[in-house]
Amino acid sequence: MDRLAKLFCFAASLLLSTQYGWSALQTTSYIAIHNTPKYANLSAMPYANPHAPKGGYISLSGKDTFDNLNAMNGKGSAVEGIDYIFDSLMKNSLDEPGVMYPLIAEKVTFDPVKTKFVIYHLNKKARFSDGSALTAEDVKFTLDTYQTKSNPGLQMYIADLEKTEVLSKHQVKMTFKSDSNSEMPLILATLPIYSKKDWEKRDFTKVTMQPILGSGPYTIERIDAGRSITYKRNPNYWAKDIPLNKGKYNFDRIKYVYYRNLDVAFEGFKSGQYTYHEEYMARKWVTGYKFPAVNSGLVIQQKFKHQNPATTQSFVFNTRKKPFNDIHFRQALSYAYDFEWQNKALFYNQYQRLKSYFSNSELEAKGVPSAAELQILKPLLSKLHPIQKQGVLSSWKSPVSDASGFNRENLLIARQLLLKAGYQYKNGKLLGLDGQPIEFEFLIFQESLQRTLMPFVRNLKRLGIQVNVRQIDVPQYIERMRRADFEMTTNALPQSLNPGNEQAQFWGSAAADQAGNYNYAGIKNPAIDEAIKLVINAPNREQLVIRTKVLDRLLRSGYYQILTYGKGENWLAYWNMYEQPKVKPKLSVGVDYWWSNPVKANKVTQYLRKQ
Q1: How do the domains of the chain map onto residue ranges?
Q2: 490 and 449 in contact (C-beta within 8 Å)?
Q3: Which parts of the sequence belong to the Solute-binding protein family domain (predicted)?
């Protein structure tokens, strides 16, 4: 390095140290939280076919209906697939947890240890779909809007954001309230960026069916209100040639067709009304795919094994209401759930019992706490109920039945737990601590859930508890969940290999009082709040794993939910008209990297015309 270059480097480092204080600032073409990026210098992602042809279509199903194209304000029923019209600052790798690569932002500057701020350096070529430039002003407008007008869950998710500043036309700086939230650059980089000009005369807080201007790979082509929406690939998409997008977004059209329930949707799939279906029901996966198109090879079934935590399916107790505010009652009810019989009799042995909120991953707590976990747990133990304290320190396990269908031993344990806690029986009915018979409502929106709920309901009846299963439509269900207007319900919660701020939304005390947030159980536990903070502020991957295991132990032993069943794979069915890259991603099916085979598509078309 010559003398002039050395002087320039010294001046640059002096400027940074003067402006921001001495720190380990780095400017990179990626964000990597607790990980080392593997693909920063590749011209295309390894799970992509850069030479994949463009053309054809893919169609999927949507649930019930939609009335809002703005998914970020939390109003109404947001439409499926709307993310296709937007770009974010950076995009997740489908192989590496906590790693993002350039999109709108081509570089990022921040200190990964003392993360007080982040500067995104925007790609000067970034454009909205109408050809107008995407600038730092649009990014600031978007973040400012999210902070004040988005749904409460999102506002809480980015609550550590203090302010957003425009440094230049293509540089934007976000400053944080804390200086140790290393996940914030990643969180902000995932959010869709809106056009400031597009919203000058529009109200962000209102439900809208007026198309929104975005910078993504697709635009809205057609809306059949409440029934279907079709997206059309933008041939002039500004980012089609960047490494992350090579071989991606190959379909000319993506369509979502809406159905009132899953059974009707499946019939639509069988008749070719849509072409790609993800199956969630074991019975249907095993017995429902016997129709002619499957037998002739025109419909393919495929299992995709992923390396993400299994989706946490559960029965949720609303601890804001009696008797679910009593941990003794919740613990007793956990013995009434008979997974072993259900898996044998109803699920064709396709599922595993969930024993963790992070099953199928290294984040799952197993056995008794390690020395490292105990070091974190000891200061928290005094804040725990004795039942929770005992569960945290032991090798916690879900009750196991003999799969006979009677569940006699576990129901006897449940009965003894209730009597010991002060509950009484009169004329075969369980009386609460207030002396009144216990009766509650189990709220659902899917008719198919009745079949899997009834064994649990029957077991509760044997315990003297009257349960009324109430099915309502999706919009009403969404609204009641927003207001925590339920007693028990089901939930399916996806988790991440890189947990962070979202854990406060799921389990934090503040979220329990916020309408529209995701702490459905109403958990208010200072020990869990402290564990969440530790997860968010984990300095490295090793500590993140340890701290997440602590959080897992606290959640399980609090009996806020009954963990039910899950699987570490996706069940896919699709009409045989698509091709996939040879290398599959580890964390996602990666449908956006598939492409259409015109010869196969023609065979499918000819077959459907004859039906």
Answers
A1: 23-40+54-199, 218-297+576-610, 312-566
A2: yes
A3: 101-509
Strand order of the β-sheet with 161-168 is 26-28, 105-110, 117-122, 171-176, 161-168
Residue with tokens 């690569």: 101
Q: Which of 87, 79, 121 is nearest to 248 (CA)?
A: 87
Using one digit for the tens of pLDDT, what is the confidence trace for 4-46? Answer: 333 333 333 333 433 444 458 999 999 998 889 999 999 999 9
Q: Would you state the CATH architecture of domain 312-566?
A: Roll (3.10)
162-210 per-position pLDDT tens digit: 999 999 999 999 999 998 788 899 999 999 999 999 999 999 999 999 9
Question: 57-63 and 253-259 as β-strands: parallel, antiparallel, unpaired?
Answer: parallel
- What's the CATH number for 218-297+576-610? 3.40.190.10
- The hierarchical CATH code for the domain 23-40+54-199 is 3.40.190.10
Tell me how far apart the alpha carbons of residues 93 and 593 are, in angstroms, rounded to a whole number.
Answer: 13
Alpha carbon 443 to its chain's center: 22
Closest to 279 (Cα-Cα) out of 304, 259, 310: 304
DSSP annotation of 240 reads T
* Residue 81 CB contacts under 8 Å (≥ 6 apart), including other chains: 60, 229, 231, 254, 256
* Global pTM value: 0.84
Q: Which residues pair with 30 in a beta bridge?
A: none
Closest CA to 577 of 299, 303, 230: 299
Instruction: Sort strands 595-596 and 578-579 into parallel, antiparallel or unpaired.
Output: antiparallel
* Residue 347 token pair: 């699920």
Residues 6+ apart with CB under 8 A from 259: 61, 62, 63, 64, 265, 268
Give the Å distances, CA to CA, from 41 to 45, 102, 160, 242, 603: 10, 12, 32, 12, 40
Please name the residue ranges forming H helices in 359-438.
371-377, 386-393, 408-420
Q: Is 286 exposed, middle or buried (0-12, 13-18, 19+ CB in 10 A)?
A: middle
Question: Please, are residues 399 and 341 in contact by the beta-carbon 8 Å criterion?
Answer: no
